[in-house]
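Before relying on records like the one below, remember that each one covers exactly one chain. Contacts with other chains, cofactors or solvent are not represented anywhere in the record.
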Amino acid sequence: MKQLIAFLLFFCVLTGHAQKGRRIFGKDPLINLENFDKQRVYWGYFLGFNSYDYKFDYKKNAPDINVDRTIGFSVGLVGDLKLMEYINLRFEPGLFYTQRNLTYTTLTKPIDRDREVPATYIHFPILLKFSSQRTGNIRPYLLGGFSFTKNLSSNETATDDNAQQKFRVKEWTKNYELGFGIDLYLEYFKFSPSIRGVFGLENELIPDNDPNSPWTGNVNSMKTRAILINFTFH
């Protein structure tokens, strides 16, 4: 994630210097898209990266379930409605691909110890965007709101469980989200890199059929934690 954040900052600076000599960062920049934010509604799309984790809460003290996060890919649309001068309502439906690898350290056989948990999410966030005053071609902002997520790989209806190497989670989850970003006004479009945290509100785990299962028997709750890095184009 440190490399992704570094890439995000580098990309912002590179974009600013590559704009045919027009200065985005500077004392007296040439103002681009001066009337863009006067629109009541505008649309866009985003591409990005994601890193999903699980937060476990246990019934009793025991060795933790290790979660190995991977870097996933995200793509989606953006709809923006201006409510006030500095407040916008945003809807950002997207398709997210990711995977988490779980390791149960108390189990010895690899077939029992390791679980790959791939996920294909359809993500429906409704967010409020709080923007600062525009300075030249830069406008920082904060984001916050709630989201609903449908997991197309949940295995919720499966009758098999971890005893048959099938990890099950709920199909729908609720989350809250917080983040920040920067609007960069380029010559022909607005580019907005952002970083956001996603925090699950509900237990997502479906327990195994055996209440004493070594995989789920000691888990009181399992909730999503994620970091999203999006590159939005308007």
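The CA atoms of residues 14 and 214 lie 50 Å apart.
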